[in-house]
Amino acid sequence: MQVIKPMTLNNTNAVNPISHDAVGVRGSGTTTRFKTDSTGPLAFHCRIFWHKFAGLASVQSVDPVDFLKNVQVTPAWEGLYPAWVLSEAADVSYE
């Protein structure tokens, strides 16, 4: 991912930002940008295991409509991916 604004600086750099696979975040804020090479749900999380349970993780939904072209959705999907129920892509029939 590219670090647009690190937690240690107040200025941003969207022109030629540094790239890292991990970045620190604190109260001052960090802004990142990343390219997705696939569609569907992607985990975005802290590398410290217990932080995930403290809420420092999220799921980024990338092009859910295109994702449906490659995945057979079942009713069990709704339990695994609750945001799915709220998206336009959820308006499908189950096979």
TrEMBL record:
Transmembrane segments: none annotated. Coiled coil: none annotated. Residues 10-63 form the Plastocyanin-like domain. GO terms for molecular function: copper ion binding; oxidoreductase activity. It holds the Pfam family Cu-oxidase_2. SUPFAM superfamilies: Cupredoxins (SSF49503). This is Multicopper oxidase.
